[in-house]
Amino acid sequence: MKPNIIVILVDDMGFADIGCYGSEIPTPNLDALAKNGVRFRQFYNTARCCPTRAALLTGLYSHQAGVGHMVEDKGLPGYSGRLNDQCVTLAEVLKPAGYFTIMCGKWHVGQNLGVVPWERGFERSLNAAAGGFYQPGDERAKLFLNGKANPELSKSWYSTDLWTEYGIKFIDEARTAKKPFFLYLAHNAPHFPLQAPAEDIARFRGKYRAGWDKLREDRLAKQKQLGLAERDWKLAPRPEAIKAWESLSETEKDRFDHMMATYAACVWHMDKAVGTLVAALKERGELENTLILFMSDNGGNAEGGPNGTTKGEPTQPDSNWFSGQSWAWLQNTPFREYKHYTHEGGISTPLIAHWPSGIPRSRNGAWESQPGHLIDIMATVVDVGGATYPGGKIKPKEGVSLRPAFLGKPLARTQPLFWEHEGNRAVRDGRWKAVAKENQPWELYDIERDRSELKNLAASDTGRVTALAAKWDAWAARASVLPLGGWRGKKGAAEKTSTKTRFVLKAGEHLDKADAPAIANRAFTITASFDTKTATEGVLVAQGGSALGYSLFLEDGKLVFAFRTKAGVARVATTEIVTGSHTALVAVAKNGALRLSVDGKLVSKAAGNGPLAPLPTDGLDVGTDAGGQVLAYKNGEKFGGTIASLVIEIEGIIEPL
Prior knowledge:
The longest helix is centred in the middle third of the chain and has 34 residues, at 250-283. The protein is of the alpha+beta class. A hairpin with a 2-residue loop joins β15 (424-429) and β16. The strands form five sheets. Strands 1, 2, 3, 4, 5, 6, 7, 8, 11, 12 and 13 form an eleven-stranded mixed beta sheet that branches. Strands 18-29-20-25-26-27 form a six-stranded antiparallel beta sheet, with no helix packed on it. A six-stranded antiparallel beta sheet has the order 19-28-21-22-23-24, with no helix packed on it. It is built from 13 helices and 29 strands. α5 (159-176) packs parallel to α8 (250-283), α6 (198-204) packs across α8 and α7 runs parallel beside α9 (324-331). Helices cover 22% and strands 24% of the residues.
């Protein structure tokens, strides 16, 4: 009888953030899975959300699958921003083997470019194109139920529970069909913007007044007690950018406590949802024969800087909280670095494997020391599920089955493990790891003796560095990693930008990046003359996509301008519903400040989140937002009214507010 398979992926959670890996955050449900299963000491992701999902879903290195960076097409095979046609997903492999295939949660492997779960092997799905939300009311909370956009759901939901609820519903459909099921459950939590119910946050308030210095020591001590860390493991030192906890004021300590309490609430609630899923499996008699794999997509996230970000109230969908670098240093105990980087803090994740009928009881609670990688998940499910991995144009899988490790036996790995993200690179061959930041020389570490990467041996063992670097170079050449720096985009014509400073546009017009207004770090205005007719929704003009850009649109009849920079989305909007014919003027200062006027009257202004840079990859559309969308529009992006004229003028027109 084939086992059911569940792969649970969480988002932006550090190596030490669950109880059975050293955390003070109570995670009893994950701890129970670990107690009755196997935990991996050395399991690796790819240091970032999109590449991790690509590698996990396909069993290839992310560049081979087309997602070497994020979901923008950079004009290179390894950086196309979407799963390509030379890979297959776990669902596409398991479905022919008789599995009922299910996906719930964050997709983020190119839905903006046409790659969707319901066309990549998943029979049932409730998904978001990307993540970054927890509740309805957030502009990114655009969901798809079995391919249908904006499905009718309860008016109030929390994404962590929603994914689990629908996962269980779809499992019941599989049982009705009398098929084994495969569930890919991709949580948003604990990705920013950190949001949680008030009672969950209250549970942890005050518990982080001890500070990151003390709590990091406590986590390492617990890791040693659990048997995760060796007795000689040491903490990587506190980076210069992070202040000593005791140097903070009481007000600062309270703010940081609130910040980490919110993060902890996201992790705790995620664990609670895991408990709901396990209870449902047990109630249905499915737990015994279900392989559950739990992991995170990258290390703790230092985005937001050492002070983090606390805009708004973290119980509300319009808030924007980042736990930041200082708490990420705790989250990745005892390692160096964070998400984005290929040092251990960026690429190390817990891996829990629970399978009562497939893992001997003698292995319950065991630690597995053999290194594993996301590329191994495909080989594992092919092995466990009795599936056949296709040949032909599909690239051969890169990983090895982890099933022997479940049994305490050696893995069949014969090749090193490799990484590259944003120029940060690494290779792990046995006990040795060479690692480097972008444009920096290789470092060398004996990971068996120095997991925290504190003693760089590169200068004393140059021969080993040279040999490991040569292996990395050969891998990079065959795995579509090159040219190094390809994540910035294809060199040459694709990088040319328009020199025009005035654009007169009409409805339906599209401009590619090279022809679109070159607005990066520049002031500009948009003047739109339009008639709403009967329309209450839709985009007048948009430039850019989900990473950077702007959009002028109607939402619930109100005129809104949204400006997306690396620091987030700033908005200006009318307070009244706009109907009939009007002329709107949007003014964007070089510093990102915004003004919106209608028929010559100023209706809204905002300081903004700073300038937009670099120039967005996605081009410009009038009357819609057809490419990578700047926002997840509430009721569609196509404007149903008429646009009489649309003029964009650049630079020198407005002064900073």
